[in-house]
What we know:
It is a single chain. The chain is α/β, with parallel strands linked by helices. It has one domain (5-313): Alpha-Beta Barrel (TIM Barrel), CATH 3.20.20.410. It has helices at residues 11-16, 44-55, 68-71, 76-83, 98-101, 122-137, 153-156, 159-175, 197-205, 221-230, 251-258, 269-284, 295-298, 301-313; strands at 21-25, 61-66, 91-95, 104-106, 112-115, 141-148, 184-189, 209-214, 236-240, 289-293. The strands form two sheets. It has an eight-stranded parallel β-barrel, surrounded by six helices. Helix 10 links the parallel strand 8 (209-214) and strand 9. Helix 4 (76-83) packs parallel to helix 6 (122-137), helix 6 runs parallel beside helix 8 (159-175) and helix 12 crosses helix 14.
Amino acid sequence: MRPAxxxxxxxxxxxxxxxxxxxxxxxxxxxxxxxxxWDGEYDSSTLSxxxxxxxxxxxxLRTVCVDRSxxxxxxxxxxxxxxxxxxxxxxxxxxxxxxxxxxxxxxxxGKAREPNPGFLDPNLAIEHFVQPALEGLGAKLGVLVFQLxxxxxxxxxxxASLLNKLGHMxxxxxxxxxxxxxxxxxxxxxxxxxxxxxxxxTLKAHGATFCLGLHGKMPPIExxxxxxxxxxxxxxxxxxxxxxxxxxYGYADAQKKxxxxxxxRSEDPHTCTVLARTIRGITGAGQPxxxxxxxxxxxxxxLSIQKLAQASAx
Length: 314
């Protein structure tokens, strides 16, 4: 596979962006990106196996979010295979398995069956996530994301106990990263009730940051930014997953409207403007920024990144 020649047209813009700013997408297996990221038409199987080699040569795509690790723990060799497809300047954002960050064990349709005994277990977090990611990716590991799935009311109604448990896990994670101070540990929540000073205090205490999660289950970006201000100075980790116009559960509707993911069909200029301003402020202060975007945000993640990069460089 080869990168799309048209992608090289963005070299000049990429050189205007801060070195500490990294844009990326949620995966690299979309056939609709032909002539945007790939040099031609490839099937999903070929893209899944080899797309990363072409993807990382696009001048604006300097990171990628490995969502696959959320559904099932990946092995050291699987991470190493990813690392072997990119150059030394590339960095990965990886998500902790749901077996650690979901308070519920779920059936095939996603419905909760029973409480998860491994929820926020420090040993599981290290064994099933931190160690294999670190050993497999090495210096190419950029961000460890702990996305807490929507929590049952029993846990949300006792935030002190929940955050204490989260703190114990984050402490173990930080201890497992000696000599890797550049690796960012980020926590993403799916319940607005957790946007609090207590969460800020927990993250601060263990050298972690807050991950902006932009989708219908959470408030808009401007309502989440106070969390970053309270953690200042610190990095930016943002995952723009879904356009809010589709609601909290609108992923299927977004996929249907946006297919084949080769054009901006649901533009969100407000989020783009606020996010670009945030990027400029954080990178202008010398802090790193990782921003990954899904096709479900506006229709075509590479085109969203191009637009956001232009706004960030303005």
